[in-house]
Each structure stands twice: as structure tokens, then as C-alpha cells.
Automatic annotation (TrEMBL):
Residues 59-226 form the Fungal lipase-type domain. This is Lipase (Class 3). InterPro entries: AB_hydrolase_fold, Fungal_lipase-type, Sec_MonoDiacylglyc_Lipase. It comes from Grimontia marina. GO terms for biological process: lipid metabolic process. Pfam families: Lipase_3.
């Protein structure tokens, strides 16, 4: 597995953070002016942002829970068979529902004069409008329509998401990879709960291209909290005590965090703690 580097980590982390607010200027992140499609949930809120450069690959950003309704879905721990061409096992019902829910029609508005766009950009914009006008199709169907067009242009897809958005990325990635083999470049999630049952973990085809980032004792990464029922997939990168640990078991993570808390008053006495605070003096 090719390691995730610092630049990639920072890029995806910032995109996941900045994708939450309503205002999102994709151009400032290096994407093409017309390289954006927003997909909305049943309430008309953006749930997925598809971003790309004309001369590069695409990044698909999945938002986490945005409402009480979204949080309640996390409690529905029933199994749901993945909507993939081949058997991919079962996942958390609530997370797959986020992809199955109907997507409202909402126009993606370009803030520049339509007549100034190139013929290729106009065709791309018209394609987006046609997709958004379709009624009764799901979030995943709209995503697949956008993804198919990008893949046909030779682009590979990176999927990233925070919290339940990470679980959506895992499920959507498996579906897209089955339909368009080799289309998924990597999947990077942040603070993601366990997504699937054992059947999904066994069949998941992107384990060598999936990175699951966990910071210290982020409680959401231990949810749904039913041992031996829900399982994580991919490689765990645990960020703790200024280090990166790979595939650290959950029990050991908990023990190390508790130990760190108990020893923290003593640890602050060590000289390396004082040396790391040298940057503070630049602010005064």
C-alpha cells in the first residue's frame, strides 16, 4: 500500500472541514472553475461535493451528520445489503440510507455569464442541469452519473469524508469500484464510525486503498459500539502523542489514552515539552 503523505492528508482534511459551510469556493483549492457538482439530500442540503481539475483527477467530499435526523439514522443498526452489482455483504442501514435517499432538484449556479463559457464547459453545465432536474432519483444515482462522466474522461476518483460522511465514502467507493474497475484512486476518512458487518469486511475490495484517520480517543470511531457486529475496513492511521500508529487495536488505543491522561501531569515536566513550546515566543 502506498503511504498517505502529509500533503494529501492536509488537503483532504481541509476539504472535509470547509465543505460543511454553505459558502464553498472550490477554485481557491485548485479546482477548475467549472469543476464542481453539488449533490443534495432529501432536505435540499448539500451532502456531497464532486470537485475536479480539467487536467487532473477528481475528489468527492462527503459531509457528515448535519441535523438531528442524520444523527438518529446512526441509531438504526440493522443490516442492509450493499447496492452493488456483485455481492458486497451488508452494512449499517442508516449509512446506506444516506445514499439511497431521494435527492432534491437544486441548480448549481455559476457566478459568471453562461455565454462566456467554452463549448465544452457549456455542455458540462447542461449535463449537470439535466441531472439536477431529474426527480425521484437517489443521492447515489446522481453521484454515479457525475462519476461515470469523469471516469469516461480518464479521471480517477479520490473519496473523502468526515464522520458518517466517511462511512458514505466507504460504501459509495465499493459500489463505484465494482461498476468502474480501477476508478477509485484512494479513500480517506476522518473520525469514521464502523460501517459494515463482517460480510462487508470480507468482501471489501478497496482495503489497500483506504485510509481511516483517527485522532486520539475520538469516541465516534468506536461506534456503533457493538463488539464483533460492526467492523472497520482499510488501514487505521491513529494520531496520538505526536506520532502515527498503524492499525492499532481499539482496546490498546483506549488503554494508551487512559494511561496518557493519568501520566500527563508528569509528562509536562519533561524538557521536550518545553522545547516544543518555542513557537509561543514568536507570538509575543
Amino acid at each position: 500500500m502506498k503511504r498517505l503523505n502529509r500533503y494529501q492528508y492536509e488537503r483532504y482534511a481541509i476539504l472535509c472541514r470547509d465543505a460543511y459551510p454553505k459558502h464553498f469556493d472550490h477554485v481557491q483549492y485548485g479546482f477548475s472553475e467549472n469543476g464542481r457538482r453539488d449533490i443534495h439530500n432529501r432536505w435540499g442540503k448539500t451532502i456531497i461535493r464532486v470537485l475536479w481539475r480539467e487536467d487532473g483527477d477528481a475528489v468527492i467530499v462527503f459531509k457528515g451528520s448535519q441535523s438531528v435526523w442524520d444523527w438518529l439514522l446512526n441509531l438504526i443498526v440493522l443490516p442492509s445489503k450493499v447496492d452493488a452489482p456483485k455481492n458486497a455483504g451488508h452494512v449499517h442501514w442508516g449509512f446506506q440510507f444516506l445514499l439511497r435517499q431521494p435527492s432534491t432538484s437544486r441548480r448549481f449556479v455559476i457566478d459568471k455569464d453562461y455565454s462566456r463559457l467554452s463549448p465544452g464547459q457549456q455542455a458540462e453545465f447542461q449535463h449537470s442541469e439535466e441531472i439536477n432536474r431529474l426527480e425521484g432519483i437517489s443521492v447515489m444515482e446522481k453521484l454515479e452519473s457525475c462519476a461515470a462522466r469523469l471516469v469516461s474522461q480518464g479521471k480517477r476518483l479520490t473519496l473523502t469524508g468526515h464522520s458518517s460522511g466517511g462511512s458514505m465514502a466507504i460504501i459509495a467507493g465499493e459500489i463505484l469500484e465494482q461498476k468502474y474497475p480501477g476508478s477509485i484512486k484512494r479513500i480517506v476518512t476522518f473520525g469514521q464510525p464502523a460501517t459494515g458487518f463482517w460480510s462487508f469486511k470480507k468482501r471489501y475490495g478497496l482495503k489497500n486503498r483506504t485510509y481511516r484517520i483517527c485522532c486520539d480517543v475520538d469516541i465516534v470511531t468506536f461506534l456503533p459500539g457493538i463488539p464483533l457486529m460492526f467492523w472497520h475496513v482499510g488501514e487505521l492511521l491513529w494520531l496520538h502523542n505526536d506520532k502515527i500508529y498503524h492499525n492499532m487495536p481499539s482496546l490498546i488505543r483506549i488503554i494508551r489514552v487512559l494511561t496518557s491522561w493519568l501520566l500527563r501531569p508528569i509528562a509536562y515536566h519533561f524538557m521536550d515539552k518545553y522545547i516544543r513550546r518555542k513557537d509561543y515566543f514568536d507570538k509575543h
